[in-house]
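Quick review question:
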């Protein structure tokens, strides 16, 4: 077992992530440490390194691939309605 003192800010960040991901604080900390050591040892794949960036557009939208047709129709409608 390990005991670690964290700043209040870091504890809040862990709590926020745990709530958002529906995980326990322990799960979030363990996952963070595993990712840290994997990154340091060079064991992360290129996909893992960029995973949080894939599918994110200029404005941070993460549904670009699933809303492509709708967005294309809207753009075409805008272009031809002027």
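Suggested answer, residue by residue:
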């Amino acid at each position: 077992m390990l005991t670690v003192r964290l700043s209040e800010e870091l504890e809040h960040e862990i709590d926020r992530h745990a709530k958002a991901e529906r995980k326990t604080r322990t799960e979030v900390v363990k996952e963070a440490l595993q990712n840290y050591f994997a990154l340091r040892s060079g064991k992360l794949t290129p996909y893992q390194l960029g995973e949080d960036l894939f599918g994110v557009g200029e404005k941070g939208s993460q549904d670009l691939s699933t809303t492509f047709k709708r967005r294309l129709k809207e753009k075409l409608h805008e272009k031809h309605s002027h």
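Why it works: Residues 35 and 48 are 9 Å apart (CA to CA). The longest helix spans residues 25-41.
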